[in-house]
Request: fold
Amino acid sequence: MSNFIDRLLDPNSEREEGQGPNRLRRLPSSIGWIAIIVIVGIYLATGIYTVGTSEEGLVKRFGRYVRTVDPGLHYHLPAPFESVVTVNVRQVRKTEIGFRTISAAPNPRYQSIDVEALMLTGDGNIARVEMVVQYLVNDSIQYAFNLIDAATIVKQATEAVMREQVATKSLDETLTEQRDTIGTETKLALQELLNAYGAGILIANVQLQDVTVPSEVLSAFYDVSNARQDKEKLINEASRYALDIVPRARGQAQEIGNQAEGYKQTRIKGAEGDVARFVEVLSRYEVGEVVTRTRLYIEAMEKILPNMDKIIVSGQEDGLLKLLNLDSAGGGQ
Reply:
């Protein structure tokens, strides 16, 4: 072949061989073969392709997947025999629900999409939820051949799962303590749904950007929120007051209980002493009833009439007037 081309391009070789006229007649045919060879070479060269460092190459033969190739320079049979689809498996893709980013930092601007953001809560209220879903490709074959529009699939699946999660929570729970729980549960449910689709997608993160109420009721919501804050404030103040007053009340109750116990013991001991004295008086009364009765009568009169002159007259009728001056007797006169 090379000798033929050399002879074709070198006119001197034709004269030396005495074939000049015949060679000129064969020239168009030779150029045609060269053109065919060049075209075939270009056609075969179309099978050369490169797979990026973050990509995987999926080779198809007559439209059917046959193999996966790693990053680097590769070759496949030219079309229509074989073709290649490259999938970026390291790129973190993002889907926005309830809003769209118009321009990024440093001067970010966003557009609200109410038809996506408004969701019905479990207590019949409406919440406005905006979120961002970040995902990766974990199975390039499923991602490339099972999905036509992966972004739309992720968006619609996320919106459906999020509405289901919000519908199980009240408005207060959605706005406050259950917000992180909703994000976590949405991520798990969304991953399970995409696995059922055979999407070849791994959910990296579900982040709730903004959870509020519709603008039409925002002022009323703030009023309710302020009232709840006042309620919590009063409850906290009452709790602090209770923590202060209850220990003091318990101390006072303990003190009163101790005093009552002391009074109880005093009364018991006093009663026991009275009983002992009564028993002693009874024993004396049994020995001398008249003397004991008289002594008791005199002691009682001294207690009843402490500041009066007292004279006791005997009731015996023997012709004598018997007097007993209690003041002089008690005073030692």
